[in-house]
Amino acid sequence: DTGVSQDPRHKITKRGQNVTFRCDPISEHNRLYWYRQTLGQGPEFLTYFQNEAQLEKSRLLSDRFSAERPKGSFSTLEIQRTEQGDSAMYLCASSTDQETQYFGPGTRLLVL
Amino acid sequence: AQSVSQHNHHVILSEAASLELGCNYSYGGTVNLFWYVQYPGQHLQLLLKYFSGDPLVKGIKGFEAEFIKSKFSFNLRKPSVQWSDTAEYFCAVPGALVGGSQGNLIFGKGTKLSVKP
User: Most exposed among A21, A64, B16, B29, judged by the fewest C-beta atoms under 10 Å?
Assistant: First the structure.
């Protein structure tokens, strides 16, 4: 399968803990996006990379959130000091320039 | 700011019924427009897209959508739905243009379609 992959698929954590998610995009895609989706809502944009450069960040991305794409390939999204409001599905997508975004299966986070 | 409205939260149809899901966006210029689908237990998949040209766009599985610039609409249609079309459908537009190309997507809240066999 050469689609976008995400790891882990599910994560349960206690409030205050740090969590890190990984996204592996489609190999030839230079753009990588992170979104968050809560129940009854469409995906909401968090941040996006072109190669290793982080080009856009949503105001939803508080200072507890950080994303990296160090070599322009895979990306990580870290949430520090998790809160119950962080519970959501975290989606990763990738694309080439000016092309369709392809989504991964998501990481479902539950903060207790 | 760009926004997307989907009119129906939950639509219930019988098999063979015709489908039309509404989508309106706020930006007045030329935009790229997308419909994504999420089948139960699966990830978001592209159903169809409009970039330019013929405003009637055909996608996978018999779906089509029509871009009507004067109405800021991009409604999704299918003449005869099947039980396997049960899914959640999301309309999306680019939220910002970075260097002339698309950045993030703005999604509507989605419409859940339930097709009764």
Answer: B29
Helix (H) or strand (E) run with residue B38 in it: strand B33-38
Cβ-based neighbours of A55, under 8 Å, separated by 6 or more: A48, A49, B98, B103
**B91: closest chain A residue by CA:** A42
Quick one: pLDDT at residue B101? 44
A100/B46 CB distance under 8 A: yes
What is the average per-residue pLDDT within A82-99? 91
pLDDT band (50, 70, 90) for residue B99: very low
Length of chain B: 117
pLDDT per residue as tens digits for the range B59-68: 999 999 999 9
